[in-house]
Specification:
The structure is a single chain. 73% of the residues lie in helices and 0% in strands. Helix 3 crosses helix 5. With 97 residues, it is mainly α. The chain has one domain.
Length: 97
């Protein structure tokens, strides 16, 4: 089965998670701290983002739990991590100029 892109992201789930991350000031501050904790390593950052997502996931049973779990497994955390590191690099380059 072919994966479809959504608004330039791997899929809808990835786009939606990134959208929510970027629109909550407390989450933005938390993610900025992760840059240091993860040593700007995309793999480490992706795992930290994944942990953050699963830590906040409500425990649902039955049909709704299955749907939520399936959607969570579709998120491309690595793509999000790479985009954050690229954004950070661009900001640093603008500050150096």
């Amino acid at each position: 089965m072919q994966k479809l892109e959504y608004n330039g992201w791997y899929n809808y789930e990835t786009w939606n998670f990134k959208l929510w991350l970027d629109n909550d000031p407390e989450t933005v501050a938390y993610i900025n701290g992760l840059f240091i904790d993860c040593e700007r390593d995309a793999y480490k950052l992706s795992k930290a983002l994944e942990q953050y997502a699963y830590d906040g996931m409500p425990l649902l049973k039955g049909f709704y739990g299955d749907l939520l779990g399936a959607s969570m497994r579709e998120i491309n955390f690595y793509q999000i991590a790479e985009s954050y590191l690229e954004e950070l690099k661009e900001v640093e380059e603008r500050l150096e100029a």
